[in-house]
Amino acid sequence: MTKKDLHPKNPNNQYLKAYSDAVKQGQKIQQVIPHSNGWAVKKVSSDKASGVFKNKDLAISRACKIAKNQRSDVLIHNKSGKISKRIPCRVR
Description:
Structural class: alpha+beta
Strand order of the largest sheet: 3-2-1-4-5
Low-confidence stretches: 1-7
Number of helices: 2
Largest sheet: 5 strands, mixed
Number of domains: 1
Radius of gyration: 12 Å
Mean pLDDT: 81
Shape: globular
Distance between the termini: 29 Å
Strand content: 25-35%
């Protein structure tokens, strides 16, 4: 999913803003997105998934591990592809 794929109904959506900011800044934010075989984990600006999982919770767990290593965050999408949650995974 790219920035062009997002059509916000609410331009003040904090999750959408986080996604847009990440793309603009080239951050390594991980996202959990729906996939034909379950749920995929991929970097915000990447076309290739780093992993595909049958369970959303497993995908979130893997995304958080990657994000902690990269000192970034995780954006979680719902089944329709809209951003539903942001998890800060930065090691402080």
